[in-house]
Amino acid sequence: MKDEKIKKIISKIFWKFFLILLIGFTALYISEATGYYEFEQHNKKVLTEEKIKQFEKDVEEGKNIDISDYIVKDENNYESKLSKLGNKMSNKIGKTVSGGLEATFNFLNNMLE
Fold first, then answer.
1. Considering Cα of 104, then 108, then 111, then 113, what sign does the dihedral take?
2. Which listed site, 25, 105, 106, 107, has its alpha carbon 20 to 30 Å from 77?
3. Which backbone phi and psi does 38 adopt, to 5 degrees?
4. DSSP states of the chain
5. Model-level pTM greater than 0.70?
6. What are the pLDDT digits (tens) for 38-78?
């Protein structure tokens, strides 16, 4: 009786995991097939060409040139409340384990002396 329930639970987990993988693969396949990545790269190229033209125009006009005006910074912040919480918990757990190991080794060292 218990074996059947365990097998059913494992089967449900397996099929859900398989379905998630299938959906992920399908989404990646469709994005590649429709040229999404190539479109993003084309947009970056066009933006770069526009900055080159702006730079050349500014040189011709004798304007004061600063390289940071022509560099496109694409920085995305992927932090969320959950990731910050996970990071804090990880740091605290790491400090606790490190402190515990240090105390244990100090105790053992004192015992041997």
1. negative
2. 25
3. -65, -35
4. -HHHHHHHHHHHHHHHHHHHHHHHHHHHHHHHHTTHHHHHHHHHHHHHHHHHHHHHHHHHHT----GGGTPPP-------HHHHHHHHHHHHHHHHHHHHHHHHHHHHHHHH-
5. no
6. 887 777 777 788 888 888 888 888 888 777 777 767 777 78
